[in-house]
Each structure stands twice: as C-alpha cells, then as structure tokens.
Sequence to fold (682 residues):
Amino acid sequence: MTGHDKNRRNPTNGPVTLADIARLADVSPVTVSRAINTPNLVKPQTLEAIARVIARTGYVPNLLAGGLASRRTRLIAAIVPSVASTIFAETIEGLNAELVSAGYQLLLGLSGYDLQRELELTRAILARRPDGIILTGISHLKETRAMLTGAGLPIVEIWDSTPSPLDTAVGFSHLAVGVLVAEHLLAKGYDRYAQIGANDPRAVQRRDGFVNRLAGIAEVELPALDMNSPSTFSDGRAAMAQLLDRGHGTLGVFCSSDVVAHGALAEAHFQGCRIPEDLAIIGFGDFDFAPHTHPPLTTVRIDRRDIGTKAAQSILKKIAGSEDVGAMINVDFHIVARGTA
Amino acid sequence: MTGHDKNRRNPTNGPVTLADIARLADVSPVTVSRAINTPNLVKPQTLEAIARVIARTGYVPNLLAGGLASRRTRLIAAIVPSVASTIFAETIEGLNAELVSAGYQLLLGLSGYDLQRELELTRAILARRPDGIILTGISHLKETRAMLTGAGLPIVEIWDSTPSPLDTAVGFSHLAVGVLVAEHLLAKGYDRYAQIGANDPRAVQRRDGFVNRLAGIAEVELPALDMNSPSTFSDGRAAMAQLLDRGHGTLGVFCSSDVVAHGALAEAHFQGCRIPEDLAIIGFGDFDFAPHTHPPLTTVRIDRRDIGTKAAQSILKKIAGSEDVGAMINVDFHIVARGTA
DNA sequence: AGTTACAATGAAAGCGCTTCCATTACTTTC
DNA sequence: GAAAGTAATGGAAGCGCTTTCATTGTAACT
Fold:
C-alpha cells in the first residue's frame, strides 16, 4: 500500500488508475478495461482477481478519460426553465429515473425561461460531450439551433408539440389545451371570459388557443399584471381582484397554472363569489393540492412525469441507433372536472 | 469547409479540435489553449485572430480532454433526495445560480431518501471527477464516507447540523426546530400534543426535539401511517382524521412539512374545529401557499435558497484553496406566527 | 553597450482510458 | 491430422486537451 511516486507531476493522494489495477492483478490494462466494460469477454477467474484488486484499492474509473477515448460519456444533459416549479420537477424525476436505470447520468441546466441563457448553457453542456440533450420547448435562438444540429447528437424537445422538431419532440399542443378549456367553459356559458397567466411561450400558446376559440363569441379579458414566469399565488389573487373590480356578470377564467388558479380562487372566495355558478376557474397542471381546494379545482391534467420518462426512452433509443423514434411523441392531456368549473 | 478525413478512426461530422483552430489561425495549439483559458497571456491581436477562427468554425472545446489534462473539471456534483419537493428544489436553484456565475456546472443526483442509492450515486459521480461534491444530510453509509474522504475533494453537507461534518456542513439543527415548536405550542397551552410526519432523518430529528421538549409534560401522539418521504396532503389529512377521531380536548400539532400541515388543516376545517382555539397546527418550510390557507398557516421558515447559495460559496472557497471555511455554517430558522397557532 | 526582465509563443510529454489489430492456446470440424 | 474456428489476452496508438520547460524578441535598466 506504499505510494511509490513515479514521475507524476501532481503527486496527490493516490488516484488509483486502471494501470495500477492491471499491475496489481498481473494482467494488461486492456484486460482490466474489458473486465469493467465487457466482462463477458474475460475469463471468470481473471475477472475475479481483478474485482478483488479493485475492491481492495477502492479504484474508481475515470470517466473523463474513458469518455475521451470512447467518445461516449453516458451523460445526458437536460435544460429546463426551472426546477422550483412542480411542473418541471416531476419531469426531471421521471427523466432521471429512466436514465439512471440505463446507466446514464443527468447533467442539469436551468435556463430561467431565458433563451440567451439557454444558448450559453447549450455551449457549456456541449463542451462536456453528452450522448444526448433534452431541451424544454421548441423555441430556441438560431445560434442554439445551429450549435445543436452541428453537434450531431440526439436531441429531444419536451413540453411542446411541433410538426418540425430539431430531432424528436415529446409533448402536447398548448394551443389545443386552450381550445379545450374554452369549449369546456363555453358549454356552461358565462357572460365574461378571462385568462390569467404567465408569459412564457407555452402559457402564451394556451392563452392563444383560448382566445382564438372564443373569437367572435366573447372578448377575452386579460388582466394586465407584470407577471414573470412562473407566476405565483399572489399574481393570481391580484389578477382576480382586478377582474372582479372591473365589471359584473358571470365569469369564466382560465389560469396558466394551478398555483395562479389557487390564488384566483382565494380572492374569489374572499369576495364571496358563488363558484362555479357566478365564477368558474380552470387551472393547469393538476398539482397535488388541486383536489383539496374549496371547492376542488377543475384543471387540465398532464402526466408530467411521463414526459420525462418518454423523453428518456426516446433519447436512449436514438443513442442505441434506432431510426424509428418518430418526430413527434404526443402526451395526453384532459380536463379534470372538479368543483370550480 | 471540406471534411478532409485524416487517419481518424471515427470520421464523424467534423468535430473541430483545438489543433484545427491552431492550424487555421496559424499559431500553435498551446496558444489557442491560452487564448481560451488565460487570455491575458496572449497578445490582443493574436487573441482576435483566434477568436475569429473559433467563431467561424463553431468550435466547442472538449472539457473531457481539458479536465483529464488539468485535473479540474469545473463540475460540482450535488446529491439531493428529490427535486419534486419544494424544499430541495429551491436549494438547487440557489446552488446552481451561484455555481454558474462562477463558471461551474452542476451534476445532479437524486437519491430518493435512500442511502444505498446515495452510495451508488457517489461512485458514479466520483467517476466524473467533480471539483467538489454536495450531499444532503449528515448520515451516510460508511462505504460512502470512505469513498468520499478517499477522493480528497471538497465536500459540503447541507440541510443539517453537526459538530463533526465530513468536511463542511451548511444547515441548522432540526432538533432545535422541534424544541422551538414545542415551546411555541406550550406557551398557548393545549390538552393534547401530536406530531404528524414523514420518516426521513431530518423530519425524525424535528419530531425528536418536539417530543423531548414535551417529555414529562405530555405524551406526544404520533398517528401511525405508513408515510414515505416526502409525505403528502392526503397523508396529513388522514393523520388529522385519526387524531380527531381518537379523543377530545384541545390539540397542538406539529407537522413535518407545510404540505402535510395543509392536509391536516383541511381535515380540521372539514370537521369544524375552531382554529387555533381548539386546534393548533404548525407546519415546516413556509411554502408559497402558507400565507394563503384558511386561516393562514403558522410555520417554521428557513431560507431554502440560501442553503444552496451558502453551500456553493463554501465549496467554491474550498476549491480556491481557502482553509478558513469552517466546519459548520448555520442557517437561521424561525417561526412565522400566522393564524393556525 | 551589456545585462536583465518580461511578454509572447512553441515543442514535447502525458492525463487515463479505449480501440484496433495481433497473438496465443485450445477446440471443433471434415 | 490439417484447416478453421473461437476464447482470452496483449501491444501500440491515440482521444483532445494542459502542463512544464524552453526559446525568441523587445523593452528596461545601469
């Protein structure tokens, strides 16, 4: 166990290398490499001897060296806007679970809903030569696109739908969500319609779908608040106050997330509205608390975790060389009708 | 722009290398390396020429090669139980923000509150030779400890307090939280005391502090539910139903998280309890919704994001070679007295 | 004018792996 | 019993960088 310094530049606390293992096990480095990566090519007896030495020395292979040599890093990068929002957190959990079980690791980037930051992250990530990359949304800077396509690795865009993804997309049409919600409210019939929401690209799509479906039927009111994404309980509450202040008549409201809807609901409650007779609220996301508000929140349900799972599966297939992954993988959504609409 | 195949084993779509840049800019590879890493050592004019070539070719440095050669990866790994819980999500956001601004990247591992998984993750992470590692909590398998200390890199343990961390810890005493909550409830005086909670090590510590403080004063009731960590709204609701079912007299309850508290509150409301006269509830975490429940939730506030920020700062200092980071960095907590206690 | 410093650059070696191409020792097969 | 596998192993080269140690030219001092 003596640390015989060779001509090492940096004689740190013995970083055991594959060569060390080879020497101790009295085999060549190649054999050790095979013992680790393709054990079926090595005689069981040799394998065991090597395993013993590895255990004894506490050898941890250097994946930087391995990746450099093999051009495969077993790293998958994902860029999401934020992890503090339930929305993406669960997608990441799904993604991670699937990747880990396939022996991959997740490199996470948080873009903060900022395309410029997404570009910088992409560059930083590509420098680590991941085997694949997952992006949130389908709108990217053209530099990002160029860099990505130039890198020639599998790409999966998530949480949105498009006929022409960079490579493959896993998600759904936010426009269609907006339309569906409009129709749900329309079926009940209200005097006024409104949308409260954040301004991230996907929330905007949902709003557009909502507004378009109601075009010619009603002017959708859009309370003006400087909401950033993601928007909060307080945003929802303030927006609802504004709406109730501004007029009368029954009101159907589509919120960009359950959190916002929760805030809106609280304000409505506070002002004594009858729900859903006078005021209907539909959220988005079906968060944990949605069944437990008063009344329970009607919302749009998406399997957030499933997006992660499917994205991981798609990218793993692509890495394995499969050509038939398809351009667009759709994920279901539907309205969960509870008490608020 | 022709792809002149050299004797490349893998003639993929032109991965531009530093050597390519050097050739095109008519300088040696070392100079390009310096232009990227230590630009102040390069003549402005040369710098510019190199920058032009880099921009034109879309060169992205290979950090695997760089890391292998320099033994610095600019990677920091963090292992947290989950990212789906608000608790850790915000810590990660803080961590990430701080790391990114220092030019580091975050490699995330999710342990799912499982120490065995933590061990495997640690091994997988160490294989990527991060410059530092952040772990959640202070209880680890002894193999994990051995591997970690053997790796000889800066370590920061977060979300807990200990006099003897592996290296440095950033957090607070969960035991003290439990004591504080007990005293808060004690001051108001209730007939019965209970705790509803998850079974992760930190929640258990909080419970122990709570129970210990009340020892000799009251027997703390612990509704038996098979709650995993993290526990949910429904868990809280069910536990509260059990408590209310089981006896009478005024009741002071400490919940292991605001989510659980929210569920408990909902049930209490449903059963028509007067809050906080007959029934007091204290949560943990001061989540977004806490000020907006009915009545607003009294809870324990911790700056979750700050834990991430401080952890990042500590590890960066250590990487920079600072010795005076200290073993324990404490983060404040306090009770936010709202309507439920 | 001669020494000394510093700024700017390069040559060579090597980080720790994996890949390709042998090589050796056995089994099969006809 | 020779030809043709197949299983198990090793040698050498190289992945794309950074590091150390020179080397050059030019500015700064006596």
